[in-house]
């Protein structure tokens, strides 16, 4: 009799629980943004960190908030990116920040886009542009977009493009406009 009463109590509790859950609002499983669902990437990495090496020597470090990778390509699509270039002693030589970019892992070629800021660690010079290219094997960094060079003393030089070697000893600004002007405080 006790076993029957206990079974009857469990059955009543089960029915009451089912009734309560049936009355509660249904929750939907979260769905990714439509843009993310349509993305053709094979892998998505959040908080990516990777290294640029040339002949086995680390020349840089790439970080991205999000990296989209494709199986049939060495190309990585980066969002919220940051690149740190190292000198031969492993110290940070320069840092690049951009909203988006691409990195060709096979060719060690990188392109940063959107409010790109290149900061030279040695003396604090800044180069601002909308698109910046980096080629590790040819030891070259450049932009074909409007460029602003800001010196630590506030001197601003504007041009239509720039090019430099990776030591940043030979920075060349093309079609200089307003060279030597001081930045407004």
Concise structural overview:
With 185 residues, the protein is mainly β. Helix content is 15%, strand content 54%. Strands 1, 2, 3, 4, 5, 6, 7, 8, 9, 10, 11 and 12 form a 12-stranded antiparallel β-sheet that branches.
What does it look like?
Mean pLDDT is 82; it is low at 1-5. The protein is built from two helices and twelve strands, in the order H-H-E-E-E-E-E-E-E-E-E-E-E-E. The termini are far apart. It is 15% helix and 54% strand. A hairpin with a 5-residue loop joins strand 5 and strand 6 (126-135). Strands 1, 2, 3, 4, 5, 6, 7, 8, 9, 10, 11 and 12 form a twelve-stranded antiparallel beta sheet that branches. The protein is mostly beta strands. The longest helix has 22 residues, at 2-23.
Which key terms come to mind for this protein?
disordered N terminus, globular, 185 residues, mainly beta, 12-stranded antiparallel β-sheet, 2 helices
Through-space gap between termini: 90 Å
Structural class of the secondary elements?
Answer: mainly beta
The portion of residues forming beta strands comes to over 45%
Rg:
27 Å
Calculate the mean pLDDT score and round it: 82
E-strand count: 12
How does the major sheet shape up? 12 strands, antiparallel
Order of helices and strands: HHEEEEEEEEEEEE
pLDDT under 50 segments (min length 5)? 1-5
What proportion of the residues is helical, as a percent range? Answer: 10-25%
Count of runs of 4 or more consecutive helical residues: 2
Shape: globular
């Amino acid at each position: 009799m006790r076993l029957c009463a206990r079974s009857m109590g469990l059955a009543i509790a089960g029915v009451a629980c089912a009734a309560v859950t049936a009355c509660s609002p249904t929750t939907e499983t979260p769905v990714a943004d439509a843009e993310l669902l349509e993305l053709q990437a094979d892998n998505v990495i959040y908080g990516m960190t990777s290294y640029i090496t040339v002949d086995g020597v680390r020349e840089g470090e790439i970080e991205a908030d999000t990296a989209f990778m494709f199986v049939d390509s060495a190309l990585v699509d980066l969002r919220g990116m940051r690149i740190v270039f190292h000198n031969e002693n492993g110290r940070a030589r320069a840092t690049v920040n951009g909203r988006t970019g691409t990195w060709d892992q096979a060719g060690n070629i990188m392109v940063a886009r959107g409010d790109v800021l290149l900061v030279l660690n040695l003396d604090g010079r800044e180069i601002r542009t909308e698109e910046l290219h980096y080629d590790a094997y040819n030891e070259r960094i450049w932009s074909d977009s409007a460029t602003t060079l800001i010196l630590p003393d506030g001197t601003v030089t504007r041009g239509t493009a720039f090019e430099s070697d990776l030591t940043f000893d030979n920075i060349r600004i093309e079609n200089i406009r307003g060279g030597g002007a001081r930045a407004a405080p």
